[in-house]
Amino acid sequence: MRLDILTLFPNMMSMFFEESILKRAQKKGIVEVVMHDLHDYSLTRYGSVDDYPYGGSAGMVMAVEPLANCIEKLQSERSYDEIIYTAPDGEMFSQPMANTLSLAQNLMVLCGHYKGVDERIREHFITKEISIGDYVLTGGELAGAVICDAVIRIIPGVIGDEQSALDDSFQNGLVAPPEYTRPPEFRGWKVPDVLLSGNHAKIEQWRMEQSIARTKERRPNLLKNQ
Ligand code: ADE
């Protein structure tokens, strides 16, 4: 997969991709992440890419021309499965959405800033608008990083143990069961006996029961969606 990220803060964005699993995914050649600094597409001597909104409200808007130039340059080089825009009024991000996006060959992610982008960019270029929650961030970079992280980690080969991504919370519409590691007892706090039993069928059954109980208790809305 190739991921093109359009941002005003490429250094801040790069940080997320330079550690751990996301770094390994790139080293293995499974993902190529390319940052594009929108300042490079500025039409002014000062490198600005924003302007005052028509109609005179507060704040600044990312201007149509530098964004269109950047997007069109990339589109002339390859075709994109989706051109994503991160915005609080977008569709709510979810595991099924991450699963679908993980099948793409080429994704573009435009990280919004200030009051957002000139609406004409959304109308004419953006194919998918995504929000990561009902709150407003200072910019779309964190949202873009969240989306890329969730998408990249489920591409086959990225996580060593294939099964582990499939076992995640939400993959089966349930939250994950509790996990334990050694020692079997700490300050009298014991690991459930079943996990030490070596009986895989029983362990699987216990995990499923725990998942269902936890989902009912913590995230009952997930059960309603089934
Ligand atoms: N930009 C600002 N807030 C956001 C949010 N909640 N989701 C996605 N992009 C955003």
Number of helices: 10
DSSP strand (E) fraction?
A: 15-25%
* H-E order: EHHEEEHEHEHEHHEEHHH
Tally the structural domains: 2
Task: Please tell me the CATH architecture of the largest domain by its name.
Answer: 3-Layer(aba) Sandwich
For CATH, the homologous superfamily of the largest domain is named as SPOUT methyltransferase, trefoil knot domain
The quaternary structure here is single chain
The radius of gyration computed from the alpha-carbon positions, rounded to a whole number of angstroms, is 21 Å
Describe this structure in words.
There is one protein chain. By secondary structure, the protein is an alpha/beta fold. It has two domains: 2-152, SPOUT methyltransferase, trefoil knot domain (Alpha/beta knot, 3-Layer(aba) Sandwich); 169-225, tRNA(m1g37)methyltransferase, domain 2 (Trp Operon Repressor, Chain A, Orthogonal Bundle), CATH 1.10.1270.20. It is 39% helix and 18% strand. The chain has ten helices and nine strands. The chain has helices spanning 10-17, 20-27, 64-77, 95-101, 119-124, 141-152, 162-166, 193-196, 200-218, 220-224, and strands at residues 2-7, 32-37, 50-51, 61-62, 82-92, 106-111, 128-131, 185-186, 189-190. The chain has a five-stranded parallel beta sheet with strand order 2-1-6-5-7, with helices on both faces. Helix 4 (95-101) links the parallel strand 5 (82-92) and strand 6 (106-111). Helix 1 runs parallel beside helix 6. It is elongated, with a radius of gyration of 21 Å. Adenine binds at residues 86-88, 112, 131-133, 135-137, 140, 143.
